[in-house]
Amino acid sequence: MRRLIWPLLIVLPVFATLLYLGTWQAQRLVWKNEIIRQIAAAEAAPALPLRGQTDVFAKVLATGRFDHGREALLALEVRGPVLGARLLTPLMREGAAPLLVDRGWVPVESRAPIARPESEVTVEGFLRLPDARNRFSATDDTAGRRFYTFDPTTIGAALGLPGVVPFGLVALGGGGALPDPARTLPRPSNNHLGYVITWYGLALSLLGVFGVWARRRLKEPA
Length: 222
Prior knowledge:
Elements: H1 5-44, E1 48-49, E2 59-66, E3 72-79, E4 82-92, E5 99-107, E6 121-128, E7 146-147, H2 152-158, E8 168-171, H3 192-219
Parallel strand pairs: 1-2, 3-7, 5-8
Antiparallel strand pairs: 2-4, 2-6, 3-4, 4-5, 6-8
Helix pairs in contact: 1-3
């Protein structure tokens, strides 16, 4: 057995690390599944009037009039061969601060008609919190009303609305016209099961390979 001591001292820490990583990913899988469950429950529940909530896992309703004269475009999104962006429009609300609404995707260059209701509307959607800027963030074109980071304070000031709500509303809808709204609440990616299988699989493979090697090693003459 002495001839296996040093190999064991090398293999055991690696085996323990692989088990730790697999367990960690299993815990994250449970956590992520709970988040997705909460999102699904919020999606099935009726939307509530917007009253200062900041829960991104909830549907809300906001009523007001769109200020189409202050429209802006956010980010870039390619659909097939068409380059597009998100259409941001301030929603002017009586007795409340203006709210930036992401009404949905529109093509950047196309002249296709875009719906612009003039009467009072009630928008159903989910909240979008501000993006964090960093050194890799694209530079906004404030004069051209083209923004690449969702920062309501900066966008509102550029649109002449310094008192906008510090978060946005992403409209939900059925599509079929422009702008093309979101269909569902956003869901985080969930690849943790694959990682669990990978790490535990590597641990079992290491154990199997070492077992075969150790058996052959012990059969060798001393």
